[in-house]
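Lab notebook, design round three. We kept the backbone fixed and only want residue identities now. Task for the bench partner: fill in a sequence for the structure below.
Input structure tokens:
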């Protein structure tokens, strides 16, 4: 029998252990090919598809992520397989196989597996690329849809690139086999496992790290998110590792010693086994929890940004079209009557027109040095708030002023209530008492209309007399009832603007349409990456489960000799598998909740619904995966 025959029999005999590894590899290759097929599609390269260059850049970045993740995943998987086959290697050594021959056998096995993975992955990618192109055509609004083609360059890069990647990992694995001390590992595997040492202070440090990380995440906002990011991640990762290596063992040990637990059925046996499993798998469980957090947070964030896009655009651009004029009766930017006529001719429905007259005024606040704002009347401000759900009307007393900061997501105080502020208006200096600082834009923030100072109507009329009409800054707003479908009308109106006055005309429709398309594409592409990460994360749990099945078989036989029924043993293994499979997911959800608290602070809105949808979807997928893994695991145990 040749080495090739032995390699083939080994792969076939251990197919259950390799199942998750092969499926994960096939998914990686499949997704990579679909992305490459679009990047190198002739219509994309020739510029025949509008907006394809942005998708191309995103898919190229995603391909680099897939390759980096694939390398990490392969190295981790190979390390598990080597540890799981220590006894098998020992038997080969007893029959006279040298380390070089053993390394050669491993190379044959991995080459065979890589060919299977690359072949089926590429074939799947070719089959699903048609559907992939159809979906991208919908997002890019391409008519007719992107043609299905077998892209030779994509095939070459996918097959050649992954084959090279697998062989690099195979050579590294062979190098590790050559340095493997099989005798020492066999001796180590036969040593009785010592009861895990408990450390109260490590458990306390883990809880403090998690508490500190969660506390920072709970308080982080748009200003502190970036500087606090590394401390939050560091504390949470350290706390997670200590939670699994020490905290879980500490809790299980306390439960095991409770009379309520150890006197009830097989709970004592279950907890005793779990203590060893949690200690042995602490690093793996911590890594899995962190990966779960990344998958859930990234997927949830993409969904939140997509579904909150309209609200965010409207918050920062309260009117569909905004025109800024210098002078009370000026029409230097655009003829407003012509603008309305063009809008109506192109099917736009003008829901309301708004005008805000303001007095430009320089100011210098801490955090806002040397800026220009606009003093407006109380009644004009309140008129603009009528149609806004998050901004309320206000009442300003005479001699007082309220400062309006347009960005709700940045809750930073710029002024002190009750303090007197001076403003230079015309040739006079005016003193006003600061009543309050408000957040949220009532007009599209630009030029002097970015920062507003709201005063009593009578105060405004008095201040207005200090400046000429041509010094006033006037904001004209037009809200369209069907603004989401009015891009053509808005572009036609924009064409009326004088050439050197483009910056004094603002509209939200074009940015909304472009951002919506890019958000849909980002969500679509990101969903592939998230699913890939999630499958690979579950595969890590699968590897760990099947690398320990030989020890579980021995334990199973010992328990059967002392009279434990198959039903009891199935119950014990089921509970242990539930903990191993779902505890990292639960910890990942907990981490993601605090990550979304930070996101909620930054966006100043409720973002948890998006996270809940993601958690529900991945939980269903994990439950299905769990039952499949449990069935294979029980079958593997029952075979011996």
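Proposed sequence:
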């Amino acid at each position: 029998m040749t080495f090739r025959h032995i390699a083939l029999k080994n792969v076939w005999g251990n197919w259950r252990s390799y199942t998750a590894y092969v499926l994960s590899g096939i998914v990686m290759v499949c997704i990579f090919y679909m992305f490459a097929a679009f990047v190198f599609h002739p219509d994309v390269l020739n510029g025949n598809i509008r907006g394809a260059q942005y998708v191309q850049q995103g898919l190229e970045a995603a391909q680099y992520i897939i390759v980096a993740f694939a390398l990490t995943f392969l190295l981790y998987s190979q390390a598990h397989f080597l540890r799981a086959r220590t006894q098998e290697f020992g038997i080969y050594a007893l029959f006279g196989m040298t380390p070089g021959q053993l390394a050669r056998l491993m190379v044959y096995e991995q080459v065979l597996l890589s060919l299977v993975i690359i072949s089926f992955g590429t074939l799947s990618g070719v089959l699903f690329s048609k559907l992939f192109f159809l979906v991208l055509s919908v997002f890019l609004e391409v008519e007719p849809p992107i043609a299905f083609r077998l892209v030779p360059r994509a095939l070459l890069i996918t097959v050649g690139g992954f084959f090279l990647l697998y062989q690099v990992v195979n050579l590294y694995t062979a190098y590790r086999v050559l340095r493997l001390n099989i005798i020492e590992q066999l001796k180590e595997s036969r040593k009785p496992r010592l009861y895990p040492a408990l450390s109260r202070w490590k458990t306390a440090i883990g809880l403090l790290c998690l508490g500190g990380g969660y506390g920072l995440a709970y308080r982080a906002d748009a200003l502190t998110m970036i500087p606090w990011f590394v401390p939050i991640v560091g504390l949470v990762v350290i706390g997670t590792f200590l939670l699994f290596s020490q905290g879980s063992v500490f809790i299980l040990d306390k439960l095991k010693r409770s009379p309520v637990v150890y006197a009830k059925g097989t709970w004592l046996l279950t907890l005793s086994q779990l203590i060893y499993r949690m200690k042995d798998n602490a690093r793996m469980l911590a890594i899995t929890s962190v990966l779960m957090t990344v998958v859930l947070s990234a997927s949830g964030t993409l969904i939140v940004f997509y579904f909150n896009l309209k609200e965010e655009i409207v918050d920062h651009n309260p009117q569909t079209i905004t025109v800024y004029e210098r002078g009370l009766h000026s029409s230097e930017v655009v003829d407003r009557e012509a603008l309305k006529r063009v809008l109506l001719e192109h099917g736009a429905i003008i829901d309301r027109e708004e005008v805000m007259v303001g007095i430009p005024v320089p100011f210098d606040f801490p955090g806002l040095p040397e800026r220009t704002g606009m003093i407006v009347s109380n009644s004009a401000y309140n008129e603009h708030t009528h149609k806004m759900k998050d901004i309320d009307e206000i009442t300003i007393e005479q001699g007082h002023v309220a400062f309006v900061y347009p960005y709700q997501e940045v809750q930073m105080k710029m002024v002190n209530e009750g303090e007197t502020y001076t403003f230079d208006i015309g040739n006079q200096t005016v003193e006003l008492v600061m009543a309050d600082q408000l957040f949220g834009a009532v007009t599209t923030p630009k030029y002097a209309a970015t920062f507003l100072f709201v005063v009593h109507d009578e105060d405004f009329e008095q201040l207005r007399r200090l400046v000429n009409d041509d010094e006033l800054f006037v904001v004209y707003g037009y809200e369209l009832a069907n603004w989401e479908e009015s891009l053509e009308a808005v572009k036609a109106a924009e064409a009326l603007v004088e050439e050197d006055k483009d910056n004094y005309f603002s509209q939200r429709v074009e940015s909304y349409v472009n951002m919506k398309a890019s958000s849909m594409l980002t969500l679509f592409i990101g969903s592939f990456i998230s699913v890939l990460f999630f499958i690979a994360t579950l595969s890590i749990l699968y590897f760990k489960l099947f690398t320990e099945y030989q020890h579980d078989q021995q334990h199973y036989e010992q328990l059967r000799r002392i009279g434990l029924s198959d039903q009891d043993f199935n119950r014990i293994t089921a509970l242990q598998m539930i903990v191993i499979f779902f505890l990292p997911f639960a910890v990942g959800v907990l981490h993601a909740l605090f990550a979304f608290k930070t996101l909620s602070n930054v966006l100043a809105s409720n973002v948890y619904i998006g996270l809940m949808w993601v958690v529900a979807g991945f939980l269903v997928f994990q439950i299905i995966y769990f039952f499949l893994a449990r069935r294979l695991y029980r079958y593997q145990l029952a075979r011996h």
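Keep this in mind before ordering anything: The two ends are 26 Å apart (CA to CA).
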